[in-house]
Amino acid sequence: MKALITAAALALTAVPAVAQDAATDITFTFAVGQPTGQVMVALYDSAAAYGGSGAPVRVARVEASGTVISATFEDLPAGDYAMKAFHDVDGDGRMATNPFGMPTEPFAFSNNAVGNMGPAGWDRAHFSAAGSVAQTINLAR
Fold first, then answer.
1. Three-class DSSP category at 19
2. CATH architecture observed for domain 20-139
3. What is the pLDDT of residues 42-62, one digit of tens each?
């Protein structure tokens, strides 16, 4: 009887491990002001990487062929993520800035987070993801 209870307990503890292995898909739908250029998207899985101490876990470049476009990141492990994006309106592959270094092309962060005198921090932009997650982000200015 004790062996049966032990086997049942082991079986029950194995179920959450299987559920945690399920793939996560994150889709960002962007509203852009004009259908030109491309939207550059970077997805991060840690505050350190998001802050510049590491690389994004995934990147995407999506042609702005309409005023609503999407970028999907598939087969990610469940966890916390944050996204940075900008609309490369002129299509030159980089963020245009004024002489003071301020961006002149639209940019946004996950959760439509807003920064204070700079980019939105991880604390505002990060979100937990498991299964399918979708966010609508406003890049129209």
1. helix
2. Sandwich (2.60)
3. 999 999 999 999 999 999 999
